[in-house]
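Lab notebook: predicted structure, single chain.

Context: the supervisor wants predicted structures on file for every construct in the current expression panel, including those that have not yet been purified. This is the next one on the list. No modifications to the sequence; it matches the entry in the shared construct table.
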Amino acid sequence: MKVGIVGDAARTTAWEKHLRPHAIVSEVNLVPTIKDLGDIDACFILDDSPEKLDHLLEAIRLGNNCFMISKQPTNSKKLEAIHRAAQESGVKVQFSHWPVLAPATQWMINTINKPGFIHIARRVNRSLLVDAENEFRNLWIDELGLCIKWINSGIHHVEANQLSLGKSNPISTHLFIRFDNGSSASIFIYAGAQENTHQRLVCSKQEVLDCDVPSQTIRVGRLNDGDHLFFGKQSFDPATAAEKAALLFLKSIQINSDTAYTSYDALQLANQIKKVEHRLALFS
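Prediction complete. Output recorded below exactly as produced.
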């Protein structure tokens, strides 16, 4: 498979290292713009510019399978155009929604594909947020995208509350989402912690998964034949996230399946962000 990587030299070289060792990749071309791609089977677009979605749409219209590696886009109008173009062109599109693509999350999704309840708690040291308002917003958006993708059902109701100290210092956000299939999710973000912690707790009727996100370690609780709860552990290497995400994308092209985080997933998230922010404006 011939792969093109679009972006600045430092980032494209780093991503090339994730691809070179794998037999599925026969050639990697590093180029500065979409127009330089040439004849390829897949392209990786490393772009955080304001025009990133325009660049992605250009690549799709040229018939390229695309992995968009950037901050999660939220422009629903442009994402709708991208989703429509991808469907019309028959190409695969994957977005780098890292909460979904992380190795531990992929294992958890395969283990509990229909969770009854997801609880996410993330506590952040405020001094680590450079652009507090935007970075704080991105924290809950990331987790909301994970919940919507994982539970995979229409949203029945959302409760949302956010507190800020003054006008530009968001300190906490709490979301509670009830889905049409009866599942629910709770997301709590707090930006006044002394230490960073990040936990995702996922439950079904048979299992409970408790993930320490920074270490990608999962405590797994299951019932044995005697109906007693016992616990085990699964661990994953956070450093392999980019490599494994790249392979997920390439394999989806190879076997003609949906990518791990599609243009439809990105569009659904963008649409729900609008609704959540409307409720935050009303009740915060």
